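Exercise 7. Given the encoded structure of a 196-residue chain, write a plausible sequence.
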């Protein structure tokens, strides 16, 4: 199936919609529209679940969909962290810690490509970390809007955020370990042949 036809499947159209809402979401956070940003993030979370469900149900699992889905997750994580840091809702170290993990993993892309590998499958711990972070952020946004409930919401939000960061980094180390194992198993001359 061509890339154009893959993009036109219902699950991938939902992923594209989710991607298109990222800048809208970021503007809403930065301009102080916390409740609207919360609703956009909630809708994005629903489409995240729905596109995976529909892809399996309609037998429309595609390579482009496997790339779009985690890309959208990453962009929402980055947008939320940046927006919350700009508004002073989270300390500056949180976006640095989360984003630096993905920057570190970006260095594995050329290493894998040189050996004719694409991105490796997402580990369970990576999915759990992403889930925890994507659960923490709506709660942090909700706490910005519903200040009288902060005493209840913020401890739960921060528990998800800190567990999410821990799992996110743990999955990153597991990913690097997998890459190093592949590098050891793939002789140098094979990598050179694959690139020619």
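Solution.
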């Amino acid at each position: 199936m061509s890339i154009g036809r893959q993009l036109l499947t219902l699950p991938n159209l939902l992923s594209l919609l989710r991607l298109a809402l990222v800048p809208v979401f970021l503007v809403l956070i930065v301009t102080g529209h916390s409740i609207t940003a919360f609703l956009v993030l909630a809708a994005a979370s629903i489409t995240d679940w729905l596109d995976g469900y529909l892809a399996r149900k309609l037998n429309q699992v595609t390579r482009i969909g496997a790339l779009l889905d985690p890309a959208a997750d990453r962009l929402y994580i980055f947008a939320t962290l940046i927006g919350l840091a700009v508004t002073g809702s989270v300390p500056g170290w949180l976006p640095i810690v989360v984003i630096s993990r993905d920057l570190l993993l970006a260095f594995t892309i050329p290493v894998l490509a040189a050996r004719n590998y694409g991105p490796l499958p997402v580990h369970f711990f990576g999915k759990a970390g992403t889930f925890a972070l994507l659960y923490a952020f709506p709660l942090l946004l909700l706490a910005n809007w519903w200040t009288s409930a902060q005493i209840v919401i913020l401890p739960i939000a921060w528990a998800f955020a800190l567990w999410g960061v821990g799992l996110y980094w743990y999955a990153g180390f597991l990913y690097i370990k997998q890459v190093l194992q592949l590098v050891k198993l793939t002789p140098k001359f094979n990598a050179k042949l694959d690139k020619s």
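Remark. The radius of gyration is 18 Å. Students should compare their own answers with the one above.
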